[in-house]
Design a protein that fits this description.
The chain has about 240 residues and is an all-alpha fold. Helices cover about 65% and strands about 0% of the residues. The longest helix has 13 residues. InterPro entries: Mitotic_Regulator, Sel1-like, TPR-like_helical_dom_sf.
Length: about 240
Amino acid sequence: MELEPAADLGNSYGINNLAVYYLNEIVTNINKQKAFELCQKAADLGNSYGINNLAVYYLNEIVTNINKQKAFELCQKAADLGNSYGINNLAVYYLNEIVTNINKQKAFELFQKAADLGNSYGINNLAVYYLNEIVTNINKQKAFELCQKAADLGNSYGINNLADCYSIGIGTNIDEQKAFELYQKAADLGNPFGIFNLSHCYLNGIGTNIDEQKAFELHSKARNLENTSEIFNLAVFGNDLKC
């Protein structure tokens, strides 16, 4: 594996990226313990991605016990180092009252900062603000444009939310065929909301022929992923660990 020499030489990015391989079963078998140790090593070397990813471990009880306070502190540290994923994730903390008090204005500013850095999750989450009048005024056209931008960057939540725009007519005309294609794309990327919404399309003949069997299979898959049908759900830590 090409990453191993870099990791063995103490390269913090190689160490962090190798952790991602072990966690996501890329080439190698899943080894969450090894991934955690590599993540810790990268973080100890001051790598902002390693620090942010370590926060994900502590928040989601991967190998280690849940420690929301430690997760928050690590997320803050990654954000202070200018890591766009850390900045986006810190915003989620402030929005959802994880450890800290709810501060929607601060969350908005952090999402904007992450978006300005080109972070697709920040861009997608900023769209949620403009659609739901969180801190800012409703601006459906801006929400649509942000969803399109996140989708163009390959963000599965952005793709799903863009499909919602076409399905409901948010900032654009209703186009059920386009919505179906985008839900399919999000589902193919493993997005649970895309999978659920695709099942809805097959059940009701939205942009495709009715196929109740297919709808049932997709719905079951979505439920196994603990999906809900909430539209424009904020991507908390989508595709958790980052290289």
